[in-house]
Inverse folding.
């Protein structure tokens, strides 16, 4: 994929309301039974679905500050972001074999982007144009883990856990939106809504593919039962290193970008589409639901780990 200097900010909504609701509900209903019931019962599933699109509501142009701040958290153009990679020791502490990875902390990434901007003055390498998706995911995941830690404490002290349950369930729905965004390949690429730059394969350059794939096609053709079947077949797991796992998840999405364009070219997402288009879309929604389920499960398990509590300025 050739890099081109023309960059614009993504404005699309991954999966649309139908896909986001489906993905979040399926994640909740496939949580292991050792996860507290308030995160997986019918009320939890209904809440996860109802709040799945909440972060998109924060992007109304009536709320300029919130829209400007949160929009970059829905996407990351991996081709550009990798210009901000930093060195690490290959195959040590989850460092890739090429010895380069994105910084784990949001502000370190922003500083690395600034450095990359100096090396590439013809590009617009800002957080707003390149995206902040994985940092938002990890930060919300950590909020869930903290909430579950407090829930464990309240439970052990025989205190009312309902306020904490409300907090955690909202945060789980919040997380679900961004993980859903990450599973949509066009939210992990510079080629997010029409091919740009060299185009030897003649992919569409019209600004329609994004909504056609994630909203129109999903709403008309994708059934929750078909996605749920895929998620149920994948055993839940506790993630060893959440940051590294999520980056791999995003890179897997990015690796499927050209496939989206290839399928669009064959009419796979037009009207009833094709069996291949349906299978591909179900698999991406299932990948998002599995990742969300495993992140919530990991937060629950890791919330039992001992921590040094914050005690204020010392």
């Amino acid at each position: 994929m050739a890099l081109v200097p023309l960059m614009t900010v993504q404005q699309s909504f991954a999966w649309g309301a139908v896909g986001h609701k489906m993905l979040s509900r399926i994640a909740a209903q496939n949580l292991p039974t050792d996860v507290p019931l308030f995160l997986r019962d019918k009320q939890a599933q209904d809440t996860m679905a109802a709040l799945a699109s909440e972060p998109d509501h924060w992007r109304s142009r009536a709320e300029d500050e919130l829209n400007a701040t949160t929009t970059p958290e829905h996407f990351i153009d991996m081709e550009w972001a990798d210009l901000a990679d930093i060195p690490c020791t290959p195959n040590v502490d989850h460092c890739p074999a090429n010895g380069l990875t994105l910084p784990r902390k949001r502000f370190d990434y922003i500083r690395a982007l600034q450095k990359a901007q100096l090396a590439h003055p013809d590009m617009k390498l800002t957080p707003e144009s390149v995206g902040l998706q994985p940092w938002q995911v990890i930060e919300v995941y950590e909020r869930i883990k903290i909430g579950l830690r407090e829930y464990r404490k309240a439970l052990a002290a025989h205190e009312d856990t309902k306020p904490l349950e409300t907090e955690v369930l909202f945060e789980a729905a919040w997380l679900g939106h961004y993980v859903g965004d990450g599973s949509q390949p066009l939210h992990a690429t510079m080629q997010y809504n029409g091919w740009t730059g060299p185009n030897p394969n003649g992919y569409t350059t019209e600004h329609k593919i994004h909504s056609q794939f994630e909203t129109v096609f999903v709403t008309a053709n994708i059934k929750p039962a078909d996605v749920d079947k895929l998620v149920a077949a994948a055993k839940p797991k506790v993630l060893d290193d959440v940051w590294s796992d999520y980056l791999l998840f995003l890179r897997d999405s990015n690796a499927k970008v050209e496939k989206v364009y290839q399928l669009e070219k064959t009419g796979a997402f037009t009207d009833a589409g094709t069996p291949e288009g349906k299978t591909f879309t179900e698999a991406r929604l299932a990948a998002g639901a599995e990742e969300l389920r495993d992140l919530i499960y990991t937060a629950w398990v890791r919330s039992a780990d001992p921590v040094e509590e914050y005690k204020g300025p010392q």
